[in-house]
Amino acid sequence: MSETSPSVRSYVQSQAFFAASLVAVLALAVVMMAFIDIPVARFFEEYGRSRPSWLKSLSDGARHYGQAFSALLAFLTMLSLDPRRRKQAILMAVAVIAAALITNVFKLTTGRARPRMFLQEGQMWSAFKGFSTSAYAALPSAHTASAFALSGALSRNYPRGAWVFLAAAALCGASRVFDNVHYISDVFLGGLLGLWLGYGVYRWRWSISLADSIEKSVWRLRPDPEGGRDAGSGSREDDSIPDEK
């Protein structure tokens, strides 16, 4: 019997690790839902009435990092100031869009009541009710998922600024809990999903192929002033995902 090749063994090990990690994450989320979410929601419902104005302003500002215009601004900034990372900018956009799509599918179908709605009505779940009212669209946090997808991608491209990007995403997630529109488990799952997508799109074949197709269709090859290929499209070496040194 022939031995298993190293590539097959590595693939099996990576899939086993992913499965174990997924089980651990879901188990931790269940614990949060059972023992942490509601007490924290009750605390912030009371604290929100008397919290200082500076904290409210910080929370209001932080949540904007998880909105579409923040990702669009980052995308346009990369294209303008760092054109050699054009493909990486496209992958960043793919990560943020994927995070928004996945979270909204779950939010609308699971029908988890937002903290304020639960504290008023006492009902936590109502499947598919998210399609009719955002009051039942808590799980997971789309703002947090988008923020961490954006920060993960930016950290992948500019690792020296990773702590700034991730801190901004963490503040965005915290603001959703401070404002009592999400539970801690919503933010926890949204953040991990976003981070997974933000880093993962730079490794997965489907996302890289998609970015290649978009780049070729939007930015067609054209001669540069020196008679070579367009500097933005680059050689095959340029297409590799460069890290900041």
Low-confidence stretches: 222-239
Second-tier CATH architecture of the largest domain: Up-down Bundle
Number of domains: 2
Q: What is the radius of gyration computed over CA atoms, rounded to a whole number of angstroms?
A: 21 Å
The total count of strands amounts to 0
Strand portion, in percent?
under 5%
- Overall residue-averaged pLDDT value: 89
**SSE string, helices as H and strands as E:** HHHHHHHHHHH
Outline, from the CA principal axes? Answer: globular
Tell me the structural class: mainly alpha
Quote the CATH topology of the largest domain.
Answer: Vanadium-containing Chloroperoxidase, domain 1
Number of helices: 11
In the CATH scheme, the class of the largest domain would be Mainly Alpha
Oligomer: single chain
Report, as a whole number of angstroms, the end-to-end distance.
Answer: 46 Å
Question: How many strands, which pairing sense, and closed or not: the largest β-sheet?
Answer: none
